[in-house]
Amino acid sequence: MMLPPTSARSPLFALAVTAGAVLIFIFGLLAWQSPAQVSFPHASVHDEVVTDSSRTPAAHDVFRLLFAPMKVEPANATFTFYDENIENLTTLRLPARPRYTKNMGKDVLVLDLETRPLESTKQYKEGQYDWTKLNHVSGGVFSHYTYAQVHGYDYKFIRAHEFEDRHATWIKPSALAQHIKNYKFIVFLDADATFRFMHLPIEWMLNYWKIEPMHSITMALDPWSVEEADYNSDRFNRTYANTGFMVVQNNAKIMEILKAWHECPDDTRYPGCSYWKEPKFHEQSAFGEHIRYDYEKYVKELPCAEANGFPGVTVSDCQGRFVRHYWFDKANIKKDFRDNVMNALTLPIQRMFAENAGGIIHEQVENVLP
Transmembrane ranges (predicted)? Predict the structure, then answer.
């Protein structure tokens, strides 16, 4: 889609009118299913009132309202979903006494960390935006941002400068250290990782994984197979944990762990760690080879199947039950995002037909000409 060139009216006006029409459509559907909670101004999409930010719903309000009918409560006893590999519904149950019973809101930070700018931003500033041409980085970032807005979490996209002497992924420990002091949890995802269920809050997953106050960092293990036993294993033949998805908790040990991790390549506390400045898997290998052995009780390692991999991966059953990490086929990030949004957007439409709201379904008893 090409946006009109800058003029006296500016592209923002056209965008606002289009956005207004979409928002009114969405709000209309949502107002039907929960009229006590939703209202919007009775204005034509052609009226310039839609450009008034004081009267136009904020993006986070739209996201929350859109997903409200689907959202799962943090301590909901069960979560039911369709699994791609089986025809029947799958139901998962929380432990008897879940720890996290309320939404933590702004105490949770969803964090994107990049050294590169979003390609889509440059294109947008040039008057172009086309969802179909969006690369996986923008698709992943947009999905993370949307997830944060749906659940009321804080969100940051950090542009970090690269190191001169090591791989760009080494920016993770210091970035986490700079921000964890302001939050109870940081949820970090690589651009090629995404939440499978946009409507499932991180609190529910923390309950399901039995994350306790002592757990400073939670990661999922990588896949492991006998055929390639050395590929994802450390020097003790223990499988690496993947840093593409991390839940970092603000507790007494976290800064010590992050400091040890960040300084690992200096070869002071961990001789030989400088080897991992560049070779695979950089900071992840350093964490697996050194850091986790000093902080075993503070590191929670999830099965690969829970928060790593994607559908079709048979090794270690790494099919991304809750969090998907597309090491390959990265374009599927956009597909997951699209499917989540379309599921939320079409649910009110389905409900209208299922409940015959407003008498939209008419019975034709006889198939005859009038």
Answer: 12-32
Q: Using one digit for the tens of pLDDT, what is the confidence trace for 189-248?
A: 999 999 999 999 999 999 999 999 999 999 999 999 888 888 999 999 999 999 999 999
pLDDT at 53 over 70: no
Tell whether the torsion through CA atoms of 237, 242, 247 and 248 is positive or negative.
Answer: positive
Query: Above pLDDT 90, what percent of the chain?
Result: 78
Beta strands in the chain (DSSP E): 78-82, 89-93, 108-114, 154-159, 185-189, 193-195, 217-221, 241-249, 299-302, 323-325
> Which amino acid is located at 64 in the chain?
R
Q: Are 281 and 240 in contact (CB under 8 A)?
A: yes
| pLDDT at 26 (0 to 100) | 54
Structure tokens at 296: 């075993």
Q: Which two tokens stand for residue 316?
A: 């270690």
d(CA 19, CA 11): 12
Q: What is the pTM of this model?
A: 0.85
Q: Is 171 exposed, middle or buried (0-12, 13-18, 19+ CB in 10 A)?
A: buried
Measured CA to CA, the distance from residue 257 to residue 292 in angstroms comes to 9
SS3 label, residue 28: helix
* Cα–Cα distance for residue pair 150/132, rounded to 1 Å: 23
Task: Give CA–CA dist 334/104, Å, rounded.
Answer: 27
- pLDDT, tens digit (0-9, with 9 covering 90-100), for 66-91: 999 999 999 999 999 987 766 678 99
- Measured between alpha carbons, how far is 69 from 361 in angstroms, rounded to an integer? 23
Alpha carbons 223 and 244: distance in angstroms, whole number? 13
**How far is residue 337's CA from residue 75's CA, in Å, rounded to a whole number?**
25
First to last CA, the chain: 45
Q: How do strand 299-302 and strand 154-159 relate by DSSP bridges?
A: unpaired
